[in-house]
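Input record (one chain):
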Amino acid sequence: MKQLLTLALLMGLVLTGMEALANTDSPQVDHRQQRQDHRIEQGVQSGELTRREANRLDRNQNRINAMEANFKSDGQLTRRERARLHRNQNVQNRKIHRQKHDRQDRY
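The corresponding structure, as predicted from the sequence alone:
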């Protein structure tokens, strides 16, 4: 009985340790994606973005989300992958800003 309990405890510790090693957390990336999604929605509601512009920006957001999921699929998000996500988010950020301030309206 003691061996079974010890084995179960050991397995729990091993699994917990493996989760710690699998560095797939990316709260900054996720939070930034949410903020950019919100900016696109706000732009549509305020009329700063046309539906066509918003659709294009949404497609770009989806590509970044897919890229993130692909990077995380192996259980790790490396520094290089994280940097690539940030670069793509920077590009998307500039695109959102340009489209919101290009003096087009939805009418």
